[in-house]
Amino acid sequence: MAQETLTITDNRTQQTYTLPIDKGTVRAMDLRQIKTSPEDFGLMTYDPAFMNTASCRSNITFIDGDRGILRYRGYPIEVLAEQCTFLEVAYLILFGDLPNEVELKTWVKEITHHTMLHESTKKFMEHFRYDAHPMAMLVSTVAALSTIYPEARDIHDPDNRLLQIKRLIGKMPSIAAMSYRHSLGFPYVYPDNDLNYSENFMNMLWKMVEPKYVANSVLARALDILFILHADHEQNCSANVMRSVGSAQADPYLTTAAAAGALSGPLHGGANEEVLKMLDEIGSKENVPAYIKRTKEGHGKLMGFGHRIYKNYDPRATIIKWTAEQVFKVTGRNPKLDIALELERIALEDDYFIKRKLYPNVDFYSGIIYQAMGFKPEMFTVLFAIPRTVGWLAQWQEMLADTDQKIARPRQIYTGHEVREFLPMGKRAPVAATAG
Ligand SMILES: CC(C)(COP(=O)(O)OP(=O)(O)OC[C@H]1O[C@@H](n2cnc3c(N)ncnc32)[C@H](O)[C@@H]1OP(=O)(O)O)[C@@H](O)C(=O)NCCC(=O)NCCS
């Protein structure tokens, strides 16, 4: 019978070591015994950007990038997007199973109960500059919630943690909507607890003088589906930040703000905003071949294309394309769709993209839907952050309960000077202080 072990010979010493293999993984710490002398620190692994390192065991989200599979707690994303509401999926992601009717009712009530923001949070947001980026406002305000709920620091109390989780999921749409209204110079709208999660978000975004906001049911459902698709994505950049900052036992507001900061980057959640900028830059279908040629020559990337994990197709992109059709029946077709479809068509037939396994990802079509719904591109990443908060919090809870985990602290390969002689001021040569 095949043994689940790995035998390594160190050619520096001719010593042989046998390491256990568990779930296709060797423990990096098992390499530490491989030394050239007793004083030697021991062998480490070098893995910039975590290309081949599992940082945790997780039972939340499963992705098979080669086969284009995404599942939350074992359920295919396609089934969840078709059958469930976002808060139902949030419950599944956080607690491991789908809620029954009573559990869901209680859960929805509890989240709805926490949609209100403290007046000091509202005042805090009023003082952002008129042109502040909504994502920067969201990140700062989520961090500022830590000042309103100082008890959140007791992360060892499960009941306390759950209360903060409910608060964060409830308040995220309220903060997102306020950041949107602030950037337009409109007064803030308070939550309406008669409405469901997505409808209430739309109410806080778009209510003007009407006494009661009535959300378009197709758009509300589309938003809910988009929230489901974005709820978790295992160990992506922001989830890794959530776990890393959380491992230092910072409170969940500061930890979530850190994760949202990672999400704001154009290589992560910020990509959907970049897709719209790119489509604007391309301008029309006829310009697509020239733009692709430029990309292949190394001038920039096709935003919304490529993924570290998906090397076949991104299953979320398929659902989003379907959702886009439903949305366009209400809003009219976004003219950018034609450019996007042409870009996708040409890229998928091109050797450069085929060889590198570059396919449209979740961000490629989501921005076009958001724009058709009336959002400015600056809001797109904020729309991503609302549902991803659920995934971050589930990853955070799992990390805190995992006895294998400690404060996250990678090693480095030091490439700097050996010890140097200190030079007094008068003897130092000029050094240009450049950023690079
Ligand atoms: C998502 C992303 C960061 C993954 O990066 P990665 O796994 O580190 O992949 P790499 O950057 O190593 O890319 C591998 C190759 O494909 C190319 N490539 C990757 N994404 C590309 C894109 N969007 N357009 C054109 N070329 C791309 C790289 O230049 C590289 O080519 P090379 O082998 O000739 O050097 C990357 O594909 C990207 O930047 N995409 C655009 C941003 C985006 O849509 N992000 C949202 C992710 S959900």
Detail the topology: elements first, then pairings.
Blueprint: E1 5-10, E2 15-20, E3 61-64, E4 69-72, E5 75-76, H1 77-83, H2 86-95, H3 101-113, H4 119-126, H5 134-148, H6 158-184, H7 197-206, H8 217-229, H9 237-247, H10 252-263, H11 271-282, H12 288-296, H13 315-331, H14 336-349, H15 351-355, H16 362-373, H17 380-401
Antiparallel strand pairs: 1-2, 3-4, 4-5
This protein binds coenzyme A.
Task: Label this structure with key terms.
single chain, 436 residues, mainly alpha, two-stranded antiparallel sheet, 17 helices, 5 strands, binds coenzyme A
Note down, in words, how this protein is organized.
This protein is mostly helical. The chain is built from 17 helices and five strands. It binds coenzyme A.
Give the CA-CA distance, first to last residue.
Answer: 54 Å
Query: How big is the Rg?
Result: 24 Å
Low-confidence segments: none
Number of strands: 5
The biggest sheet amounts to: 3 strands, antiparallel
In terms of structural class, how would the helical and strand content be classed? Answer: mainly alpha
* H-E order: EEEEEHHHHHHHHHHHHHHHHH
